[in-house]
Amino acid sequence: MMETAPLYTDVARAPDGGVAYWLDTDDGVRIRVGVWNKGTRGTVLLMPGRTEYIEKYGLVTGDLRQRGYATIVVDWRGQGLADRMLDDPDTGHVLKFADYQRDVAAMVQAARELEMPQPFYMLSHSMGGCIALRSLVDGLEVKASVFSAPMWGILIGPVMRPLARGIAWAASTVGMGQKYAPGTSAQSYVSVAPFEDNLLTTDPDMYALLQEQVAAHPRFALGGPSMNWLFEALTETRNLMAMEAPKVPALTFLGTNERIVDTAAVIKRMQDWPDGRLEMVEGAEHEVLMEGPEIRTRLMDQTVDLFGQHS
């Protein structure tokens, strides 16, 4: 029997009936999943982005439940309430990007043990989109996959772009892999950035909710990535972009004001995806699923329409 874990419903705005569990991955890391197991149309494997946590997707789980889907959400290693990977808990760190697939395996196994409704679908955001793409390439079976601003490339200035991976590699090889990537620190973005011209959402209520969540539960907060994370991320995105798209129906949402992931990589990937479609979200920032109600409703309707076509 899985051990229950905390689920902070005070800030999640999630539907009733959710429960969280601790899971142990095959390399001994403790991660957390949140489960909303009511649904008749299948289960969505929800894969968050870097710095994120289960409670951030409370509204999304509610939107999915209203449309007939159960949801399981994961706290990746190194963030949320999962085991942090360094003595400095504010650093977003991973030893190898492939380690995230251990978290995926534990998540999927939990969904099966809990007898969550079939079939399985996938919804992912940002870094979660990179992890999700790798899972699909490696053969994870889902009926369809939806990506929100997937991290298939990291937005780096043209001067630094050719040097970034080499610098990150050098830092890791000389024992500085645990240091923060340039321009980042221990402070979480929403804790210090004002709403005006923020990189995440144009909706003030949603931004206030994100700030409320990390203020109420400081363990949710995560600072910048480590140099090793950066090297691993740049390597993984490069490798994935060189591969053929998986044979899984896919829909990708990307804001027209995206300023975190490399939009050129997303556009190129979707142009090469045989059963894929790219939907540009006018005026939206990085967190397209955290925009205002009108946008969220439209995107969720499109999401479940894709799922329904492949039930």
Describe this structure as you would to a colleague:
A nine-stranded mixed beta sheet has the order 1-2-3-5-4-6-7-8-9, with helices on both faces. With 311 residues, the chain is an alpha/beta fold. Helix 9 links the parallel strand 8 and strand 9. It has helices spanning 9-12, 58-66, 99-113, 127-137, 161-173, 189-192, 204-216, 227-241, 263-271, 293-309, and strands at 4-5, 19-24, 30-36, 43-47, 70-75, 120-125, 145-148, 250-255, 276-281. It has a single domain (4-309), classed as 3-Layer(aba) Sandwich (Rossmann fold), CATH 3.40.50.1820. The protein is 35% helix and 15% strand. Helix 5 (161-173) crosses helix 8. The radius of gyration is 18 Å and the shape is globular. It contains ten helices and nine strands. The model has no long low-confidence stretch (mean pLDDT 95).
Blueprint of the fold:
Layout (H helix, E strand, L loop, with lengths): L3 E2 L3 H4 L6 E6 L5 E7 L6 E5 L10 H9 L3 E6 L23 H15 L6 E6 L1 H11 L7 E4 L12 H13 L15 H4 L11 H13 L10 H15 L8 E6 L7 H9 L4 E6 L11 H17 L2
Parallel strand pairs: 4-5, 4-6, 6-7, 7-8, 8-9
Antiparallel strand pairs: 1-2, 2-3, 3-5
Helix pairs in contact: 5-8
InterPro entries: AB_hydrolase_fold, Hydrolase_4, MAG_DAG_Lipase
Pfam family, one: Hydrolase_4
Keywords: Hydrolase
